[in-house]
Design brief:
The chain is of the alpha+beta class. About 40% of the residues lie in helices and about 25% in strands. The chain has nine helices and ten strands. Strands 5, 8, 9 and 10 form a four-stranded antiparallel β-sheet that branches. A hairpin with a 6-residue loop joins strand 3 and strand 4. The two termini are about 25 Å apart. About 15% of the residues are buried. The structure holds zinc ion (2 copies). One zinc ion (ZN) binds next to helix 3. Keywords: Membrane, Transmembrane, Transmembrane helix.
Length: about 270
């Protein structure tokens, strides 16, 4: 994914700029004021990677802990409006897998043989980070999800229509045709099901959304085996309301920090 560049407005908001916009004036989405974009070298130097020595996943966790970009509260999709919702993302990474037993047929002391099942022990590490979206981009996100769901439903419907056609055909013709048809149908169904399984593991439609968070695609590229899951969507305005209504004297707590407190246990351990 392309490197991201930002400028900071006097009003304190951050705005995303492209490298070709260097030297031009850009309007701040928050206060409508014009802001001068610096030259390309300054842009590149200030591209905001405060942790050049950390691994991508560590950068995600470090910026999250500090409330720095990309977790400073801007929408991850349009990067010009404040986020209204938070979607928790659970990333599970395979750290280690070792075989306890190879399995196979083994001779026993008494002269017989026995079948030993192979067993693998796995160690997975779990990391949480949020996908932040404004209400505009959330609509797009939901539409994206519905579109994939509809597509899956049509695929399933088509598969059964095909089976029906095969059965009618087989009824009027020979049993051999029926067998061939069934074989091809099973083959098709198997292909469809295996694709379905992959989708659950990777959440294919969500991946482009998650990769809009800086360093996520780099972090995933470094892992051999992982899976991503998203949790229940949280309304950041509601969280803000909870924070304001609480007795807590720590009033500098941002909604994202509040959310992080809920996951405190293993949150900042670096995998
Ligand atoms: Zn501004
Ligand atoms: Zn947005």
């Amino acid at each position: 994914m392309a490197e991201k560049y930002y400028i900071e407005c006097d009003c304190g908001k951050r705005a995303r700029v492209e490298l070709h916009e260097a030297g031009m004036d850009k309007r701040c989405q928050a206060c409508q004021q014009m802001v001068r974009v610096p030259d390309t070298i300054t842009l590149q130097q200030s591209s905001g990677d405060n942790y050049p020595l950390l691994r991508p996943l560590e950068k995600i966790l470090a910026t999250l802990r500090e409330g720095e970009p990309p977790f400073d509260g801007l929408c991850h999709h349009c990067e010009c409006r404040d986020a209204d919702i938070l979607i928790p993302v659970k990333l599970r990474i395979l750290i280690e897998r070792y075989m306890k037993d190879d399995g196979g047929i083994r001779p026993t002391i008494t002269g017989g043989v026995k079948l030993v099942a192979s067993a693998a022990e796995e160690y997975w590490k779990e990391v949480w980070f949020p996908l932040l979206l404004c209400s505009e981009c959330q609509k797009e996100y939901i539409e994206d999800r519905e579109q994939r769901r509809r597509k899956r439903r049509w695929e399933l419907l088509g598969l059964f229509a095909l089976l029906g056609a095969f059965l009618v055909f087989a009824y009027f013709f020979t049993a051999i045709v029926a067998l061939c048809s069934l074989f091809f149908w099973l083959l098709l169904a198997f292909c469809w099901a295996s694709q379905f399984r992959n989708r659950i593991k990777l959440q294919a439609w969500q991946l482009p959304w998650l990769e809009e968070i800086r360093w996520v695609s780099e972090a995933l590229a470094m892992e051999d085996e992982y899976n991503l899951e998203t949790g229940k969507t949280l309304d950041l305005r509601k969280i803000r309301h909870i924070i304001e209504g609480s007795e807590n004297t720590d009033d500098n707590l941002s909604p994202i920090q509040w959310w992080m407190q809920q996951f405190k246990r293993s949150y900042f351990e670096i995998p």
